[in-house]
Structure formats: structure tokens, C-alpha cells
Amino acid sequence: MNDFWPVLKVTLNNVFGLSAARHRYLIRREKIWEPVLIGLTIIAALSSFSFVLFQPAKALVSAGAALNQPQLVFTALIASSQVIFLVTGILLMISSFFLSNDLTILVPLPVKPGSVLTAKFIAVVIQQYLFQVVFFAGAILAYTPRFGGGLAYWLTLAAVFLLNPVLPMTIAGLLTTVVMRFINRRHRDLLMIIASVLLLVVILGFQLSLTAIPETEMPEFMERLMTSRLGLVRAAGRVFPPSIWASQAVAEAGTLAGLGSLALVVGVNLAAMLLLFPVGNLLFYRGLIGGQEVARRRQSAQRVLGSIRQVSAFWSLFRREWRLFIRNPMYVMNSYVGALIVPVMMAFAALQQDALGDLIEQAKASPAGLLAITLGVAAAIAFLGSVNAIAATSISREGKCIWISRSIPAAPEVQAQAKLFHGVVAATISSVPTLVVFAWLLRPGIGPVVAAGVLGVVASLLPQTLGLMVDISRPMLGWTDPVAAVKRNFNAVWPMALMIPMVLLGVVIGRWLANAGFSAVGAAAALALIFAGLDLVAYRLLSARAPSLYQQLEV
Amino acid sequence: MLFIQNISKSYQKGKVRAVDDLTLQVHPGEIFGFLGPNGAGKTTTIKMVVGLLRPDSGTITVNGLDVEKHPLVAKREIGYVPDNPDLYDRLTGTEYLNFMADVFGVDTELRRRRIGELLDMFELTSAVGDLIQSFSHGMKQKLALTGALLHDPSLLILDEPMVGLDPKSAHLFKELMRRHCDQGRTVFFSTHVLEVAEKLCDRIGIISRGRLIACGTMEELRAGARQQQSLERIFLELTEDE
Fold this sequence. Notes:
The complex is a heterodimer. Chain A contains 24 helices and no strands. The longest helix of chain A has about 35 residues, at about 255-290. Chain A is mostly helical. By secondary structure, chain B is of the alpha/beta class. Helices cover about 40% and strands about 25% of the residues of chain B. Chain B contains nine helices and ten strands. In chain B, helix 3 (about 95-105) runs parallel beside helix 5 (about 135-150) and helix 4 (about 110-120) packs antiparallel against helix 5 (about 135-150). Chain B is globular, with a radius of gyration of 18 Å. The chains are: A mainly alpha, B alpha/beta.
């Protein structure tokens, strides 16, 4: 264990950029407004997400209170978050354990592999706290004023909060380490794709299992679930059993039973984490070294030269963006899976729930309803195209290779255009599942489908352009783990933030157009023209600012 | 060919002066070796020449083109390989070379010929179809060199080019640098290998603490030294005084 603490210290320092931040903001005192702005952005983002989750949490507390189980809100929270941690953990652990750049420094050091593995594991777990604070905040705000309080409650809650991601992430970490020991580097991307598909299946399966309960049986199902002692706890626990103990600990905080559950939670989590040490010592470096054994395809000169041909600089820059993105399963997972899950879940819901089906029928019957749905679909496409972070992290993703973009004779505005075009292509691809579901459920004809698609992609261009400008201005280039460039990059937040006023603007104009008697296609076309105008202004600004922003990118 | 005039570069709001009023001229057809101890300012100078850093003051011209005023035209004249060739891991070698040739505007026929020659010389042909992530450091170095030479640059700038090259590749590369200069082009490179600089360079510049402390042919450097001696002795003598 002696070598663990220095490795942990340097890993946390490296992953979170602590020394770099201290040096920049406290010693050199450069851009000290940056941490303040970042802090305010995080608080604003967390507050708005927590507010969104507060309402369903409050409803769940009230429903649970009626059955004398108000703690059900924590049950649902812990179970669902642990399932997410378990599945996403596989991808995060592969990325952190086997793909990060600092391994070339850490591996030759005379430290135990288990120390390196555990330090990296802890860094990943800490990153999850920011994610789960959103969910916990909503539940705590809904539960505490009515039922919470007392030292035992807060201490139990703090312990559960800290330990919540540990066990599922440990299982993901152990699974990853064992599998990677026996898999060649060439197949690692395949493993990540399998993990992505698994995540998709879990989410869709969960959705399907809920919607598969006939509506007529839903009240009985819920009653049965809630009236049996800790019924929902056990139901959720079936998805991920260890969540039962944590839920019971919170539910019965301050009692002997609660203390027992908490002890069980702490014990199991610590035991699992301690298991990482021997497993890491045994398998981690063997998995890493195994990954270096690369089978090489022998190619003839004729074949190599045959694949060489000239294209324009713009097209070549776009192809570079496309290939570097699409060949990284973590990036694909982050940016495209949501575009598939959201419409498929909507389709399931529409198929299983009569109420939604009735709503769709009503919408089809009235022109205003079709207009509202067409604009809603366009808003969903614009949202998916904006939150994919493709343009908003495109400079950051270059990392240490940024010297290439800075030293080639390709105009910065052309480079920015190629990155933006990649974002537009991705938004267009992302729109397909949503449009297919729209066309299939409503059968609105080709006009509204095309109009929704065009409006959605056009509207997504504005936040993408803003995101790209922010990323050129302050890229996150010093990452060690490629996933950090996308997942831990605050530049990706700006397009999401811009979507809120854009949707409000769309709603106001959409209502006015509906009242003025516009058809769905006419309203979408009018809105597309308005957003295209805004896009043009943003695009001009980007093209004008790109050369000076690129020049400020000192490498 | 390359004219660096009174350039300075500071970090940390002027507290650290990396390059201090440096003036240097490199002529066409010349191999110029840029030497200096660690942290002397070699890489900072090179980065300013290729446009990765902006000088605080002074001007840099390549073939008469100010690199700050006409960056794109100036970059077309330059082929650059950094000290640590970080390349796109998820592109194949062929895709990387195609990309470099595209952005430098090399037509299909010419790029095929040059890529064929250079890959053959560096013995990379059979590996170039693989993802760069499978390449060794030396292979990446050779691929970066190949990419930098595709457009036949009039000024080749190399930061520690011999690091990572095997003896055969290093030998071939030295020959290539000589041939490049014999055709009237210029090579500007930094190195710690004094033997290479002594044997290969037409002129040598020695930088220490951001300032050029000596510049000239080997004979001129020897003449300026206390006694006739090797470049290593001259280097140690000059940098020790700093």
C-alpha cells in the first residue's frame, strides 16, 4: 500500500488538472475569472437539471407517503443510478485503464499494478459524483422537508451518496480487467461496441418492461409494489440487488436495522474495492502488455499506392474529422446512442400506452396538432444535434495532435467549416431514427417529415457554431484519456444552454404561425428560414474570428 | 531563405524569457544545425518559425514571406516535424499521408511517386495501411518525416529528428537531408547529437538562455574558440560560460 498514495495523488492531480489550475489561477493569476464562470455554469446547470427532476421526485415522495413509504424516491434513485453506473462503467473503465496516455509513465514505475488500477478507479468514481448530485439533489429537496432530518439521516445519506457508484463501478472495473487480459488490442474497440449495445439493450429493456405492463393492470401493479413492505425496493433490487441495502439504510436511518444495512453497504463496497488490488496485481499489466501485441496486415506497395488520390483540402479535413470520431467507440456512444434511444423509447411508449396513442390520433386529426408535433419533432432533432458535442469538442479532441492543424497551410476558417460540417452531418444522421418514428407513428406524409428534419438540422447549426467558437477559444487539449475531451469538457455545455432560449423562441413563433393559419410544412419552413438567418450570422462570425482564434491557440 | 530578426518570447507574463532578441539567417541550400542545452529556447524558436507560437516581438520571414502576416503561404514553404511526433492514432498511415498531401495541394501522380519513394526508403510500405496506434515511436517519426517531405518543402524544419530512428534510417535520413539541400532547399534542425551536427551541418547556431551565443561554420566556431577543438568542447565551453 505504500506505493498507492503517491500514485493516487499524481493520478488525481493529472486527471483533474489540480497543479495546472493552481499554477494558473493562484500563482500566475491568469484568467482568474475562469473558475468563477465555470463554477457558476456548473451551479446553473445542476440547479436547472435538479429543478426538472424535483417535480417527479416530489410526486414519488407523495405517492410513497400515501402508502407509508416516502423513501421510495431514494429506492428508485439508487437502483436506477447503480444500473447506469454498472453499464457505463465498463466503457469508462476501459478508457481509463487501457487507453489513457499516462500509462506509459506509470507502468515502468516500480509500483504495484493494483495501485495504478485502484488509483485510476478512484479517479473515475470521483467523476461520477458530479453526475449523481443532480439526481440526489432532486430527491433530497423533495424528501427532506417532510420526512428527513436529524444527524443520522444526513450521515447515512452522505455515506450512501459517496458509496453509491463504488460497487457497480467496481464490478465494471473487475469485469473489464479480466476480459482485457484475454483480448487483443484490435478487439478492444469491439468490446466497447458490445458494451454500448449492452447499455442500449438495458435501457430499452427497462423501458419495455415498464410499458409492457397493461395500463389496466398498472394501478394493481403499483399498489402491490408499494403496499408490500419495501416492495418497490425489492423490485428495483432485482435489477441490481446491492441497491436494496443502500435503500434500506436511508429508509431506516437512525435505527438498528438502518445501521446494519449501512454497515453492510460499507463492508461490501470496501471489500469489492479491496478486491481490485489483488486482481489488478495479477491481471492488469498482463492485459496491458497483451494489448500491445498487434497483428499487422502486410500490404503491397501496389495496393498502398492504389489507395492514394487527391481530394480538396475541405473534403480531406472533413474526412479526418469523420474518421477520427467514428473510429472511437466512446465518442460514437456518447454522441449517437441518445439519438437512437429517445425515438425508440417513444415508439415503445406509443405502442404500449393507449393514452399516448389517443393523443397521436387527436393530433393527426387537427392541423394545429400536426403543426405542434412537427415542430416538437424538429426541436427534438435540434436538441439531439446540439448535445452530441461533436462540433463543440472538435478542437479539444485533437489533443496533442493540434500541432498538425496549426502547422498545415489550411485556412483556419476552412478547418472550422470542416468541423462544423461534420456536426451537421452528425445531426442529419441523428435525425433519421426520430424521423422514422415520426413517419411511422403519425403517417403525416413526406412534407412534414422532411420539414421537421430540415428545421431540426438547421436549428442545430446555431448552437453547434457557438460551441465550436467556444472550443476554439478555450480548448481542452491536455487530456490523458480521450474520453475526457468529450465527457469532462465544459465547452459541450454551451450548445445545450443555448437550446433553452431557442426552444422558447420556437414555441412563441410557432404559436403565432399556428394562429395565423400556417400548415405544419409552412410553419417549419418559416422557422427554418429564421434560424437559417441566425445560422448565417453565427457562421460569418465564426469565419471572421477563426483566423485570430486559431492564432491564439499556442501549442 | 529563413530570416529570424530580433524575436523574443516570454512566458508567465514576462517572468520567463524563453527567447531573447534572437537574430539568425539561414541561406538557401544550407543545412543549419541549431544546438543548445535543455530549456535553451530551441523548440520555442522552432515553434515560432512554423507558426505554433507567436513571438512577442520581432519578425520571421521564409522566402521573404512574413510568417505572421502571410501564415498560409509561408506554411506551404515549410515541412515540419516536431520533437515528439503525436499523430492521429485512429488514422492509417496511408490516410495520414493522403491528408497531408491534400492540405499541401500535392496532386495524385506526384504524391504517389513521392510516397512510394519515401515509404520504400523508410521501409514502411508494408505497415502504412495499419492504424497509426500500432506504430512504434520510430515508425511514427518516419511517417511524420514522410508527411513533411511530400510537398517537397523549400524549408524543412526538424526538432530533434534523429530521436527514435534506427541507425539505418538515421543514415538514410542524413543522406536525404543532404540531397534536399543540394537541390537548393534548406534544412533547419535542432539536435543534441553533436557528432551529427559537426559532420552534417554547413553552419551551426548555439543558443543558450534564449540568446544566440555562437553562429557559423565549424571552422568559424573553432576559430572563435580558445583552441582548435571538437564541437562538443566548443559547445561545453560556450554554454558553461552562460
